[in-house]
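Open question from group meeting: does this chain pack into something compact, or does most of it stay loose? Before anyone orders reagents, we agreed to write out a predicted structure and look at it together. Recording both the input and the output here so the notebook holds the full record.
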Amino acid sequence: MRKVNILFVIVQMGMGGSERLVHNLVLRLDRSRFNPSVAWLSGCEALKEFEDLQVPLHYVPKTKRVDFSTMQKLARIIETESIDVVNAQHFMPTIYAYYVCKVVAKRALVFTAHSRWEIEDTSLKWRIAGGYLLRRIDASVGVSQDVSSAIQSVFKTNASQTVTIENGVDSGLFERERDVQGLRGSLGLTDHDIVIGIVGNLKKVKNHLLLLQAFAKVAEELESVKLLIVGRGSMGESDDTEDGLRLFVDNHRLAERVSFLGYRTDIAELLQVMDVYCITSLREGLPLGLMEAMAAGLPVIGTNVQGIRDVITPDVDGVLVELGDVTALKIALIGLIGNEQWRNDLGRAGHKKVVQKYSLQRCVHEYEQLFLSLANASVAR
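Structure tokens returned:
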């Protein structure tokens, strides 16, 4: 039986939520049945994590607002590599892939949406155009039921065309015991320090400023507390917040207490260094970083917004605070820092939830079944 050739198309070469999903899928797809490859539209250098996957990688630069050469290059890749199914992450890559899959090469096309807000922020023009396109592709995937509902309500797609495949994490990766003493030392941490952490790109939507504002108040009351911020900004992009966050730290004399670690590949190790994980986003889809922290057994605090509250059950496996409430976040942080038993209880409950509900094995299997069904349907046509 011939293997199914899959092309994943992502907006940029990075390691945000959608890129991590693609990386996990490529890593875990059954290679006896699938040949995966990856294309991306901006950020010319391939990350080592993607190079290590040892699959075909294609940089297809999009240099204009509407770049027909990008469509033509994608078409050549799809035809040359005999691609059966294209899985486009986010709306813009789906538009470019539509030309190839439904006009030129006649291949199966799957759109994956990662949040309600990316759909609802679509302009009226693109809602109309997008609805026309999405009703003619083979499937739309939402990473949560809420995202799937948004696809149907905004783009007027049929329920039969929309599939929910919730994100998943490899809990085993975060359960392994690691010797982190050396890592703590390299980060300037002592055995007595309580460590708060966050993993995420330094963008406005991630709202790191709320965490810094609350941490500044915590630092006034507690000495041995440190904050690790893992992630980097997008230099030159309008939503980049790195410079502003660093300025806040300097102005509040927190440089000895807050560490900006930039882009890291040792997330599993860094999570084991942390005592509390805090995500303060303005909005989310279904946040992988939060799930990974829970898989690592960390107590988690999050803002009470869509996506985060889909994962956290308040006071059972985490804590929710209202968006913008610096005082509530400070109280939650101090409460967890001062109560080791509460930290342990929330951590155990969060770990159990991720293992039972958000496994990567389940996520990969559901994508495999979708890809196989579309490939078989294409052959039947």
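Observations to bring back to the group:
The longest strand covers residues 4-12.
Residues 180 and 273 are 7 Å apart (CA to CA).
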